[in-house]
Structure formats: C-alpha cells, structure tokens
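S.,

As promised, the adenosine-5'-diphosphate run. Input:
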Amino acid sequence: MTPPPGRPGSAAGPGERAVPAAVRAVRAFVAAYGREPTLLVRSPARVNLIGEHTDYNDGLCLPVAIDRELCIALRRTDDVPTAGDATLRLVSEQDPAPAVVGLPPPAADTPPPARATGWARYVQGVAVQLAATGELAAIGELAGAGLVPWQGALASDIPLGAGLSSSAALELAVAVACTHLAGSVPAPTELARLAQRAENTWVGAATGLLDQLACVGGIAGHALRIDCRTLTITPVPLPAGLAVVVIDTGSRRELVTSAYADRRAECERAARALAVPALRDLEALPADAASRLDPVALRRARFVIAENARVDAVAEALARGDAEAAGRLLLAGHRGIRDDFEVSGPELDAAVAAAQAAPGCFGARMTGGGFAGCAVALVDRTRLDAFTAAFEPAYSARTGREAVLHVCSAVAGTSVTALR
Ligand code: ADP
Ligand code: MG
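Predicted complex:
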C-alpha cells in the first residue's frame, strides 16, 4: 500500500504522536459517518525479544505487546434501519480506500480473484473465518452467520510492514469487534488461531501464531513466553530498570512473504530428514546431522534448536533481573539468525552493531520476519539519553538512513471498551 503523503509509511510523525490513536480513531469515525461511535477496540503491536522463526517449528518465543496501538472506533449499523447495507465498513487514515465486506462474508473456499484486495483482505479474512467457525450465534435479520454489520474508523501508531505486526493488530481488532457485537467471548487462543487462519488462507502469508498470540495475550509489565505447540503463555516480568527499545531502521523489503515460505519449507525439510514431527522436538543436532541434511537445512535446524534454548535462557535471565545475560543472548540470537537462518539485512546488521556499541545497551538483535524493518535493544533505562545520542549518528553514518527509536512499555492485549 502507498501511504498518503505526509504520513511516512508508518507510525504517525512526531506532531501527530501527540494525539493518541484512540482519539484519532474517534475523530475519524465522526468525520466519516457523521455520528458518534459506541465502542473502541485497542490492539497493541508486538516486539519479539527472542525466539524468531520458531513459532511454525512448534517452538518457543518471547514477545512483548507494546504501547504502539491500532484502534478502531465503531458502531453497529443495524440499530437504525436506514444506516445502510449489511456490511462491515472500515476507513483507515493510512489508505483513502475503505475496506468493505458484504455480509454474509464470502465462503472460505472463494477463489482468490473473487476476494478483496489490499488491506481489506485482512478484514474480509477475519470475517470469513468467523463465519466459518459457526461459533457466533445468528443475530439479527441482516447479519450473516452471526456477524453484526458495523462501521468503523481505524487509526494506528504501528508502522506498517516493519515487523511489529500491524497485521495481527488489525486482524485481532476486527475479530474482537465482531465477536463483542455478537455477544461471544472466545478464548484468546481461539481468536489468535482464527486470525492466523485469516492471514494464512486469505492474505496468503504463511505466518505462525506468534504475532496473534502476542497481540491478544499481552500483559502489562511482562514479556510472554509462548510455547507454540501447547499455546501456553507464561508471563515473564520485565526488570523495572530495563527499557525495551524498538529501532525502526526505516528499511522495508518486498518479497518477504516468499522468503518466509522458503524458510518454513526448509525447516520442514530438516525435521523430516531428522525424523521428528518438528524441529522443536530436538534439544541438540544429532551427531550424524551433517550427513542427513543438506547444508541449507543443516544451518536452519542449527539456528532453530539454539533459538528455542535461548528463549528459556532469556526468560530466566529477565526473571532474575539479569539484563546483562539477557542482552548477551540477544546478540547471540542475532548472529544465529544472520549466519545460519540468513534473514537479516544490511540495515538490521548496522542497527544491531550501532546499538551494541552505544552506552547502556545490554544487547540487540533484529526482530520480526527479517530482511528489513526493526531491531530491538535492551537498554539501561537510566542511560537512554546517552544511548540515543550515540546510536543515531552511528546508524546514519553506517547506512545513510535515519532510524526511529521507540522506547516501549509492555501493555495488555486487544481490548474493547464502551464509549458511552
Ligand atoms: P507487519 O505485520 O510487520 O506490520 P505485514 O506486511 O504483515 O507487516 O502487514 C502490513 C499490512 O497490514 C499492511 O500492508 C496493510 O495491508 C495492513 N495494515 C496494517 N495496519 C493498517 C492500517 N492502520 N490501515 C490499513 N491497513 C493496515
Ligand atoms: Mg504481519
């Protein structure tokens, strides 16, 4: 998607940040529909501290839901007979074209050419999955498969395509809006699974469950140790003096989706050759791994096995307040994902190097799917100014780019509140 002018591909700029996304969403609703919204859904971004590309290997990860959020102000439209068609209709400040989904939504096996395009795919994908689960009770004459028609306005401070999971925030916000209006309260893991199916089948991104679980399961002040096989979420308290700094390198890459699918296939190939259901089932590479795996699959497997172990080691280090140990593990994770998993990129490597060299930094790594987007650094909260002062010129000197730093707090997952 091409962002409108003046809105640099991403989060609102410094001036706009002064107006919270929740307020902008309400204002946009009034401007678009000429009446007041009744509900506000808030859905956080997430940053993964460690445990990258492990989710689809049934493994472990350690994300944090962060205080950069996507908000939808909304109102059901079957409350007044003249309000319009049976649709879900959503406008976004990021795109002049609204997302409109007719109700009932298309069948789950609708061929791709007959589906929505652009960001409407995420909205439609969620509606399709909700209708397909049959979980929602049929409500109202206009509703399709229990979906209540509504109109909404979306505002977001989550940069798009930066690896902070604006897509999961959008999916979960739409899912929570729909289920809330239908009077249904699915378990967070069910919502996450449904959103993941929407992204896998309707958007065509073969993502694991990390993004959706982190977004819906966020807990203030905590990282989330997620076991992607059992879907168990264990909160890990973040030490008070530790700042989680997200570094948006300003770089974006096309074709990440196909590279992601390649990595997924390579991991599955490695698991098959090693005769385990998933790489998660190995605590170490077998002694004869080099003869059973091609060199690429060997590198992928080596990374995933080490990365799973790092998740527990970082969780333990954070729980005992040992930021230095956690930071060392992040840097080891970066080296593994760069050299063995091969999904880093020049800007991500530059950001990690500049962060590591800056005062107060315990450790840094790329975060998200890879190639471009964001890095994450663990920084001594009392030295944030010195960190920023050293990081920014060092990163620019290496790349010719400006990075945007977000000092983040850990927040609660997707929520809905009545506006009046
Ligand atoms: P990430 O999840 O890392 O941000 P993705 O490529 O998975 O990157 O998802 C980004 C896509 O999600 C955007 O291209 C757009 O289609 C959709 N999206 C996210 N936030 C918004 C928004 N505020 N308005 C419209 N579409 C959005
Ligand atoms: Mg995404």
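The two ends are 34 Å apart (CA to CA). The first strand starts at residue 39 and ends at 48.

- D.
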